[in-house]
User: Fold this.
Amino acid sequence: MTTRTTGLPRKDLFDIPSDIVYLDGNSLGPPLRGSAQQAVEVVSDEWEKDLIQAWNSANWMSMPRIVGDQIAPVIGVQPGSVAMGDTLSIKAYQALAAALDIRPDRRVILSDSGNFPTDLYIAQGLIDTLDRGHKLATPPPDEVEEHIDEEVAVVYLTHVDYRTGRMHDMDAITKRAHECGAVTIWDLAHSAGAVPLEMRQTNTEFAVGCTYKFLNGGPGAPAFIYIRPDIVNSIRPALTGWLGHKDPFAMDLRYDPAMSTERFRIGTPPVVQFKLLHFAMKIWDLVDMSDIRLAATRLSELFIEEVERRCPILDLVSPRNASNRGSQVSFASDEAYSIIQALIDSGVIGDFREPNILRFGIAPLYLDENDMVRAAETLEHVMKAEIWREPKYQVKKQVT
Ligand SMILES: *Cc1c(COP(=O)(O)O)cnc(C)c1O
Assistant:
Protein backbone atom coordinates (compact mmCIF):
# COMPACT_ATOMS: atom_id res chain seq x y z
CA MET A 1 0.00 0.00 0.00
CA THR A 2 2.27 2.79 -1.12
CA THR A 3 1.18 4.39 -4.38
CA ARG A 4 -1.58 6.96 -4.52
CA THR A 5 -4.16 6.61 -7.22
CA THR A 6 -7.21 8.56 -8.23
CA GLY A 7 -8.84 5.26 -9.22
CA LEU A 8 -12.03 4.86 -7.24
CA PRO A 9 -13.69 2.76 -6.05
CA ARG A 10 -11.16 0.43 -4.43
CA LYS A 11 -13.48 -2.52 -3.88
CA ASP A 12 -10.40 -4.74 -4.07
CA LEU A 13 -9.32 -3.43 -0.66
CA PHE A 14 -12.52 -4.49 1.12
CA ASP A 15 -14.29 -7.67 2.14
CA ILE A 16 -17.93 -6.98 1.35
CA PRO A 17 -20.27 -9.79 0.25
CA SER A 18 -20.59 -9.40 -3.53
CA ASP A 19 -24.38 -9.72 -3.53
CA ILE A 20 -25.07 -6.69 -1.36
CA VAL A 21 -24.91 -2.94 -1.85
CA TYR A 22 -23.58 -1.45 1.36
CA LEU A 23 -24.96 2.02 2.06
CA ASP A 24 -24.36 1.99 5.81
CA GLY A 25 -20.65 2.74 6.00
CA ASN A 26 -21.63 6.01 7.67
CA SER A 27 -22.72 3.94 10.66
CA LEU A 28 -20.28 1.02 10.56
CA GLY A 29 -17.62 0.90 7.85
CA PRO A 30 -16.95 -2.54 6.31
CA PRO A 31 -13.74 -4.47 7.02
CA LEU A 32 -10.68 -3.94 4.87
CA ARG A 33 -9.48 -7.15 3.31
CA GLY A 34 -6.97 -8.62 5.76
CA SER A 35 -8.62 -7.21 8.90
CA ALA A 36 -9.38 -10.66 10.27
CA GLN A 37 -5.75 -11.65 9.78
CA GLN A 38 -4.66 -8.56 11.73
CA ALA A 39 -6.81 -9.51 14.70
CA VAL A 40 -5.51 -13.09 14.58
CA GLU A 41 -1.92 -11.87 14.48
CA VAL A 42 -2.32 -9.68 17.56
CA VAL A 43 -3.54 -12.68 19.49
CA SER A 44 -1.32 -15.42 18.10
CA ASP A 45 1.93 -13.60 17.28
CA GLU A 46 1.91 -10.96 19.98
CA TRP A 47 -0.26 -11.84 22.96
CA GLU A 48 0.30 -15.60 22.87
CA LYS A 49 4.04 -15.40 22.25
CA ASP A 50 5.13 -12.32 24.14
CA LEU A 51 2.44 -12.09 26.80
CA ILE A 52 2.87 -8.93 28.88
CA GLN A 53 6.11 -8.06 27.14
CA ALA A 54 4.09 -7.28 24.01
CA TRP A 55 3.29 -3.89 25.53
CA ASN A 56 6.89 -3.07 24.58
CA SER A 57 7.88 -5.64 21.96
CA ALA A 58 4.77 -5.17 19.79
CA ASN A 59 4.47 -1.45 20.47
CA TRP A 60 1.08 -1.87 22.13
CA MET A 61 1.54 1.11 24.44
CA SER A 62 2.44 3.39 21.51
CA MET A 63 -0.56 2.46 19.37
CA PRO A 64 -2.64 5.49 20.42
CA ARG A 65 0.12 7.87 19.33
CA ILE A 66 0.89 5.94 16.13
CA VAL A 67 -2.76 5.86 15.11
CA GLY A 68 -3.30 9.49 16.18
CA ASP A 69 -0.61 10.44 13.69
CA GLN A 70 -2.52 8.54 10.99
CA ILE A 71 -5.73 10.41 11.84
CA ALA A 72 -4.01 13.82 11.85
CA PRO A 73 -3.60 14.28 8.07
CA VAL A 74 -7.14 13.02 7.42
CA ILE A 75 -8.58 15.82 9.56
CA GLY A 76 -5.96 18.36 8.51
CA VAL A 77 -3.93 18.83 11.69
CA GLN A 78 -0.29 18.47 12.65
CA PRO A 79 1.26 15.22 13.90
CA GLY A 80 1.19 14.83 17.68
CA SER A 81 -2.02 16.81 18.11
CA VAL A 82 -4.50 13.92 18.17
CA ALA A 83 -5.10 11.71 21.23
CA MET A 84 -6.84 8.37 20.81
CA GLY A 85 -8.93 6.09 22.99
CA ASP A 86 -12.27 5.48 24.64
CA THR A 87 -15.46 6.38 22.79
CA LEU A 88 -16.61 9.54 21.10
CA SER A 89 -19.02 10.22 23.99
CA ILE A 90 -16.05 10.28 26.39
CA LYS A 91 -13.89 12.40 24.09
CA ALA A 92 -16.78 14.86 23.76
CA TYR A 93 -17.01 14.99 27.57
CA GLN A 94 -13.29 15.71 27.85
CA ALA A 95 -13.45 18.45 25.22
CA LEU A 96 -16.53 20.07 26.74
CA ALA A 97 -15.21 20.02 30.31
CA ALA A 98 -11.95 21.57 29.10
CA ALA A 99 -13.75 24.19 27.03
CA LEU A 100 -15.92 25.28 29.98
CA ASP A 101 -12.77 25.53 32.06
CA ILE A 102 -11.28 27.92 29.50
CA ARG A 103 -14.31 30.26 29.84
CA PRO A 104 -15.18 30.01 33.56
CA ASP A 105 -17.11 33.29 33.47
CA ARG A 106 -19.62 32.14 30.81
CA ARG A 107 -22.59 29.84 31.20
CA VAL A 108 -23.99 28.88 27.77
CA ILE A 109 -23.17 25.73 25.82
CA LEU A 110 -24.52 26.33 22.32
CA SER A 111 -25.37 23.25 20.28
CA ASP A 112 -28.31 22.58 17.93
CA SER A 113 -31.49 20.55 17.84
CA GLY A 114 -30.11 18.33 15.07
CA ASN A 115 -27.20 17.10 17.14
CA PHE A 116 -26.74 13.43 17.90
CA PRO A 117 -28.36 12.64 21.26
CA THR A 118 -25.21 11.42 23.01
CA ASP A 119 -23.53 14.78 22.41
CA LEU A 120 -26.46 16.49 24.12
CA TYR A 121 -26.71 13.92 26.92
CA ILE A 122 -23.01 14.36 27.66
CA ALA A 123 -23.54 18.12 27.95
CA GLN A 124 -26.60 17.67 30.20
CA GLY A 125 -24.69 15.27 32.47
CA LEU A 126 -21.68 17.54 32.71
CA ILE A 127 -23.89 20.53 33.54
CA ASP A 128 -25.44 18.53 36.40
CA THR A 129 -22.05 17.38 37.68
CA LEU A 130 -20.56 20.86 37.64
CA ASP A 131 -23.72 22.37 39.14
CA ARG A 132 -22.56 25.89 38.29
CA GLY A 133 -25.63 27.03 36.40
CA HIS A 134 -24.57 26.19 32.85
CA LYS A 135 -27.30 26.04 30.21
CA LEU A 136 -27.48 23.98 27.05
CA ALA A 137 -29.04 25.85 24.12
CA THR A 138 -30.28 23.85 21.13
CA PRO A 139 -31.71 26.16 18.45
CA PRO A 140 -32.48 24.75 15.01
CA PRO A 141 -29.26 24.13 13.05
CA ASP A 142 -29.78 26.98 10.59
CA GLU A 143 -30.16 29.47 13.45
CA VAL A 144 -27.02 28.56 15.37
CA GLU A 145 -24.89 31.36 13.99
CA GLU A 146 -27.26 34.09 15.14
CA HIS A 147 -27.26 32.63 18.68
CA ILE A 148 -23.52 33.11 19.10
CA ASP A 149 -22.86 36.02 21.46
CA GLU A 150 -20.73 37.05 24.45
CA GLU A 151 -22.70 34.76 26.81
CA VAL A 152 -21.64 31.64 24.95
CA ALA A 153 -18.78 29.72 26.55
CA VAL A 154 -18.58 27.00 23.92
CA VAL A 155 -20.04 26.31 20.51
CA TYR A 156 -20.46 22.54 20.50
CA LEU A 157 -21.67 21.20 17.17
CA THR A 158 -21.60 18.18 14.93
CA HIS A 159 -20.35 19.20 11.50
CA VAL A 160 -22.52 16.82 9.45
CA ASP A 161 -26.03 16.06 10.72
CA TYR A 162 -26.42 12.31 11.34
CA ARG A 163 -29.99 12.28 10.06
CA THR A 164 -30.05 14.61 7.09
CA GLY A 165 -26.41 14.96 6.12
CA ARG A 166 -26.72 18.76 6.35
CA MET A 167 -23.26 20.25 6.78
CA HIS A 168 -22.55 23.33 8.92
CA ASP A 169 -20.33 26.10 7.56
CA MET A 170 -17.52 25.25 9.92
CA ASP A 171 -15.23 28.13 8.96
CA ALA A 172 -17.91 30.80 9.31
CA ILE A 173 -19.25 29.47 12.63
CA THR A 174 -15.80 29.02 14.14
CA LYS A 175 -14.83 32.54 13.09
CA ARG A 176 -18.00 34.02 14.54
CA ALA A 177 -17.54 32.06 17.79
CA HIS A 178 -13.97 33.26 18.18
CA GLU A 179 -15.00 36.87 17.49
CA CYS A 180 -17.40 36.53 20.44
CA GLY A 181 -14.75 34.91 22.61
CA ALA A 182 -16.33 31.46 22.60
CA VAL A 183 -14.44 28.19 22.38
CA THR A 184 -15.39 25.71 19.62
CA ILE A 185 -15.73 21.94 19.59
CA TRP A 186 -16.48 20.20 16.30
CA ASP A 187 -17.78 16.64 16.29
CA LEU A 188 -16.49 15.02 13.11
CA ALA A 189 -18.33 11.69 13.46
CA HIS A 190 -19.80 11.95 9.96
CA SER A 191 -17.00 14.03 8.47
CA ALA A 192 -13.72 12.20 9.10
CA GLY A 193 -12.99 10.05 6.06
CA ALA A 194 -16.01 11.51 4.26
CA VAL A 195 -15.21 15.13 3.46
CA PRO A 196 -11.94 17.08 3.16
CA LEU A 197 -11.12 18.69 6.51
CA GLU A 198 -8.62 21.39 7.43
CA MET A 199 -9.15 21.57 11.17
CA ARG A 200 -5.88 23.38 11.78
CA GLN A 201 -6.91 26.18 9.44
CA THR A 202 -10.29 26.59 11.14
CA ASN A 203 -8.35 27.40 14.32
CA THR A 204 -10.88 25.43 16.38
CA GLU A 205 -9.75 24.60 19.90
CA PHE A 206 -11.14 21.06 19.81
CA ALA A 207 -12.38 18.40 17.41
CA VAL A 208 -13.60 14.93 18.30
CA GLY A 209 -14.74 11.96 16.26
CA CYS A 210 -15.20 8.23 16.01
CA THR A 211 -13.36 5.84 13.72
CA TYR A 212 -15.85 3.05 13.05
CA LYS A 213 -17.90 5.04 10.52
CA PHE A 214 -16.16 6.38 7.39
CA LEU A 215 -12.75 5.37 8.79
CA ASN A 216 -13.63 1.66 8.84
CA GLY A 217 -11.92 0.90 12.16
CA GLY A 218 -14.44 -1.79 13.15
CA PRO A 219 -17.15 -1.98 15.83
CA GLY A 220 -15.91 -0.40 19.04
CA ALA A 221 -12.87 1.24 17.40
CA PRO A 222 -11.30 3.97 19.59
CA ALA A 223 -12.30 7.62 19.25
CA PHE A 224 -10.08 10.65 18.64
CA ILE A 225 -9.70 14.11 20.09
CA TYR A 226 -7.73 17.01 18.61
CA ILE A 227 -6.64 19.82 20.89
CA ARG A 228 -5.05 22.92 19.39
CA PRO A 229 -1.36 22.52 20.23
CA ASP A 230 -0.87 26.10 21.49
CA ILE A 231 -3.41 25.54 24.29
CA VAL A 232 -3.02 21.87 25.13
CA ASN A 233 -0.53 22.35 27.95
CA SER A 234 -2.68 24.91 29.71
CA ILE A 235 -5.74 22.62 29.77
CA ARG A 236 -6.75 20.73 32.86
CA PRO A 237 -8.02 17.33 31.66
CA ALA A 238 -11.36 16.37 33.19
CA LEU A 239 -10.72 12.64 33.26
CA THR A 240 -7.33 12.30 34.84
CA GLY A 241 -6.25 8.72 34.24
CA TRP A 242 -2.81 7.28 34.72
CA LEU A 243 -1.95 7.14 31.02
CA GLY A 244 -2.45 10.89 30.79
CA HIS A 245 0.14 11.35 33.53
CA LYS A 246 3.54 12.68 32.48
CA ASP A 247 5.20 9.48 33.69
CA PRO A 248 2.62 6.71 34.17
CA PHE A 249 5.10 4.13 35.39
CA ALA A 250 6.56 6.40 38.04
CA MET A 251 3.38 5.42 39.90
CA ASP A 252 3.33 8.81 41.50
CA LEU A 253 0.52 9.34 44.00
CA ARG A 254 -0.20 12.81 42.64
CA TYR A 255 -1.60 13.46 39.17
CA ASP A 256 0.71 15.50 36.99
CA PRO A 257 -0.44 15.76 33.36
CA ALA A 258 1.77 14.93 30.38
CA MET A 259 3.11 18.06 28.68
CA SER A 260 1.51 17.13 25.35
CA THR A 261 -1.66 15.84 23.73
CA GLU A 262 -1.04 12.65 25.72
CA ARG A 263 -2.73 14.27 28.70
CA PHE A 264 -6.03 13.42 27.01
CA ARG A 265 -5.31 9.70 27.27
CA ILE A 266 -7.09 7.99 30.15
CA GLY A 267 -6.50 4.26 30.58
CA THR A 268 -5.33 1.07 28.92
CA PRO A 269 -5.79 1.10 25.14
CA PRO A 270 -7.91 -1.60 23.44
CA VAL A 271 -5.03 -3.14 21.52
CA VAL A 272 -6.89 -5.40 19.09
CA GLN A 273 -9.10 -2.49 18.07
CA PHE A 274 -6.10 -0.24 17.67
CA LYS A 275 -4.36 -2.73 15.40
CA LEU A 276 -7.46 -3.01 13.21
CA LEU A 277 -7.79 0.75 13.01
CA HIS A 278 -4.08 1.14 12.27
CA PHE A 279 -4.51 -1.29 9.38
CA ALA A 280 -7.65 0.45 8.10
CA MET A 281 -5.99 3.87 8.21
CA LYS A 282 -3.42 2.79 5.63
CA ILE A 283 -6.06 3.31 2.99
CA TRP A 284 -5.64 7.08 3.34
CA ASP A 285 -2.10 6.79 1.96
CA LEU A 286 -3.62 5.44 -1.25
CA VAL A 287 -6.50 7.78 -1.92
CA ASP A 288 -6.98 11.49 -1.98
CA MET A 289 -9.77 13.09 0.04
CA SER A 290 -10.60 15.51 -2.76
CA ASP A 291 -11.13 12.53 -5.11
CA ILE A 292 -13.34 10.93 -2.50
CA ARG A 293 -15.41 14.09 -2.22
CA LEU A 294 -15.80 14.41 -6.00
CA ALA A 295 -16.84 10.79 -6.36
CA ALA A 296 -19.23 11.00 -3.40
CA THR A 297 -20.92 14.03 -4.93
CA ARG A 298 -21.28 12.29 -8.28
CA LEU A 299 -22.68 9.11 -6.71
CA SER A 300 -25.03 11.04 -4.41
CA GLU A 301 -26.45 13.07 -7.26
CA LEU A 302 -27.00 9.96 -9.32
CA PHE A 303 -28.73 8.28 -6.38
CA ILE A 304 -30.99 11.26 -5.66
CA GLU A 305 -31.95 11.49 -9.32
CA GLU A 306 -32.69 7.75 -9.60
CA VAL A 307 -34.67 7.58 -6.35
CA GLU A 308 -36.73 10.69 -7.09
CA ARG A 309 -37.58 9.41 -10.54
CA ARG A 310 -38.48 5.89 -9.40
CA CYS A 311 -40.03 6.67 -5.99
CA PRO A 312 -41.53 10.17 -6.19
CA ILE A 313 -43.42 9.53 -2.95
CA LEU A 314 -40.19 9.71 -0.95
CA ASP A 315 -39.13 13.19 0.16
CA LEU A 316 -35.49 14.19 0.00
CA VAL A 317 -34.55 15.56 3.44
CA SER A 318 -30.86 16.09 2.69
CA PRO A 319 -29.78 19.43 1.27
CA ARG A 320 -30.12 19.33 -2.51
CA ASN A 321 -27.00 21.41 -2.95
CA ALA A 322 -24.03 19.03 -2.67
CA SER A 323 -21.82 21.65 -1.04
CA ASN A 324 -24.18 21.76 1.98
CA ARG A 325 -24.30 17.98 2.32
CA GLY A 326 -21.91 15.45 3.82
CA SER A 327 -21.55 11.95 2.39
CA GLN A 328 -25.05 10.67 2.92
CA VAL A 329 -28.47 11.00 1.36
CA SER A 330 -31.71 10.72 3.35
CA PHE A 331 -35.36 10.49 2.44
CA ALA A 332 -38.46 10.73 4.61
CA SER A 333 -41.44 8.40 4.64
CA ASP A 334 -43.99 7.40 7.28
CA GLU A 335 -43.11 3.82 6.47
CA ALA A 336 -39.35 4.40 6.62
CA TYR A 337 -38.63 1.64 9.14
CA SER A 338 -40.47 -1.11 7.23
CA ILE A 339 -39.11 0.03 3.89
CA ILE A 340 -35.55 -0.16 5.17
CA GLN A 341 -36.10 -3.65 6.61
CA ALA A 342 -37.48 -4.90 3.29
CA LEU A 343 -34.66 -3.21 1.42
CA ILE A 344 -32.03 -4.85 3.62
CA ASP A 345 -33.67 -8.23 2.97
CA SER A 346 -33.29 -7.51 -0.74
CA GLY A 347 -29.55 -6.93 -0.41
CA VAL A 348 -29.38 -3.15 -0.14
CA ILE A 349 -28.24 -2.07 3.31
CA GLY A 350 -29.20 1.39 4.49
CA ASP A 351 -30.66 2.29 7.86
CA PHE A 352 -33.59 3.92 9.62
CA ARG A 353 -33.39 6.91 11.92
CA GLU A 354 -36.19 8.31 14.03
CA PRO A 355 -38.71 9.58 13.31
CA ASN A 356 -39.19 8.76 9.62
CA ILE A 357 -35.83 8.74 7.88
CA LEU A 358 -34.31 6.34 5.36
CA ARG A 359 -30.59 7.00 5.48
CA PHE A 360 -27.98 6.02 2.91
CA GLY A 361 -24.25 6.51 3.38
CA ILE A 362 -22.25 7.10 0.22
CA ALA A 363 -18.68 5.83 0.52
CA PRO A 364 -16.86 5.98 -2.83
CA LEU A 365 -14.07 3.75 -1.54
CA TYR A 366 -16.27 0.75 -2.29
CA LEU A 367 -19.33 2.06 -4.19
CA ASP A 368 -19.78 2.78 -7.88
CA GLU A 369 -22.54 3.96 -10.24
CA ASN A 370 -23.92 0.45 -10.71
CA ASP A 371 -24.38 0.13 -6.97
CA MET A 372 -26.33 3.39 -6.88
CA VAL A 373 -28.63 2.33 -9.70
CA ARG A 374 -29.12 -1.11 -8.21
CA ALA A 375 -29.99 0.40 -4.84
CA ALA A 376 -32.54 2.75 -6.42
CA GLU A 377 -34.04 -0.09 -8.51
CA THR A 378 -34.39 -2.29 -5.44
CA LEU A 379 -35.98 0.54 -3.49
CA GLU A 380 -38.43 1.07 -6.35
CA HIS A 381 -39.32 -2.62 -6.30
CA VAL A 382 -39.84 -2.63 -2.51
CA MET A 383 -42.14 0.38 -2.85
CA LYS A 384 -44.10 -0.59 -5.97
CA ALA A 385 -44.67 -4.22 -4.95
CA GLU A 386 -45.36 -3.02 -1.37
CA ILE A 387 -42.98 -5.64 -0.01
CA TRP A 388 -42.48 -3.48 3.10
CA ARG A 389 -46.06 -4.32 4.18
CA GLU A 390 -45.06 -7.87 5.18
CA PRO A 391 -45.54 -8.23 8.96
CA LYS A 392 -41.92 -9.30 9.54
CA TYR A 393 -40.76 -5.87 8.37
CA GLN A 394 -42.86 -4.12 11.02
CA VAL A 395 -40.99 -5.60 13.98
CA LYS A 396 -38.53 -3.15 15.58
CA LYS A 397 -35.04 -4.53 16.20
CA GLN A 398 -32.76 -3.42 19.04
CA VAL A 399 -30.33 -1.69 16.71
CA THR A 400 -31.93 0.18 13.84
C1 LIG B 1 -21.93 8.05 15.88
C2 LIG B 1 -21.96 9.27 16.73
C3 LIG B 1 -21.65 9.21 18.09
C4 LIG B 1 -21.39 7.91 18.78
O1 LIG B 1 -20.72 8.06 19.99
P1 LIG B 1 -20.03 6.80 20.67
O2 LIG B 1 -19.56 7.28 21.98
O3 LIG B 1 -18.92 6.37 19.75
O4 LIG B 1 -21.03 5.70 20.78
C5 LIG B 1 -21.62 10.40 18.79
N1 LIG B 1 -21.89 11.58 18.19
C6 LIG B 1 -22.19 11.66 16.88
C7 LIG B 1 -22.48 12.98 16.26
C8 LIG B 1 -22.26 10.50 16.12
O5 LIG B 1 -22.61 10.57 14.84
